[in-house]
Amino acid sequence: MKAMLKCIVCGKEVENLEWGVENQPLEALCFTTNGHYGSTVVDIFDGFFLEINVCDPCLFSATKAGQVAVGDSSNPRSPLRIWKGPGNGYL
């Protein structure tokens, strides 16, 4: 079964993990957002959110290009760092 959403970068259809959820992608990440103050497209305050998928190959490409940051959720004041990928000290 395919996930509800394709990869937002390349358009690839990804498989869905069949847990009774319409968008639980396999070999991809799912992101949600309520928007962002700086966006001219969406900044939602009424309880709704947007959801997107990014497939693993696109995430790996973006990581190699230095376009992915990692932060420390236990310390929100810590600076973001460029993520080097899994197994490279940040995760």
Q: Which features characterize this protein?
A:
91 residues, mainly beta, two-stranded antiparallel sheet, 1 helix, 10% helix, 18% strand, globular
Could you characterize what this model shows?
This protein has 91 residues and is mainly beta. The protein has one domain (1-64). It is built from 1 helix and 4 strands, in the order ββαββ. The protein has one helix spanning 56-64, and strands at 28-33, 50-55, 69-70, 81-82. The strands form 2 sheets. It has a two-stranded antiparallel sheet with strand order 1-2. A two-stranded antiparallel ribbon has the order 3-4. It is globular and about 40 Å long.
Spatial extent as radius of gyration: 15 Å
- Using the alpha-carbon principal axes, give the shape: globular
Q: How can the largest sheet be summarized?
A: 2 strands, antiparallel
Strand content: 15-25%
Secondary structure: helix percent:
under 10%
Please state the average pLDDT score.
Answer: 90
State the low-pLDDT regions, or none: none
Query: From N to C, what is the helix and strand string?
Result: EEHEE
As laid out across the biggest beta sheet, the strand order is 1-2
**Helical stretch tally:** 1
The count of β-strands is 4
Total domains: 1
Secondary structure class reads mainly beta
Q: Whole-Å distance between the termini?
A: 30 Å
Strand and helix map with partners:
Blueprint: E1 28-33, E2 50-55, H1 56-64, E3 69-70, E4 81-82
Antiparallel strand pairs: 1-2, 3-4
At a glance:
By secondary structure, the protein is mostly beta strands.
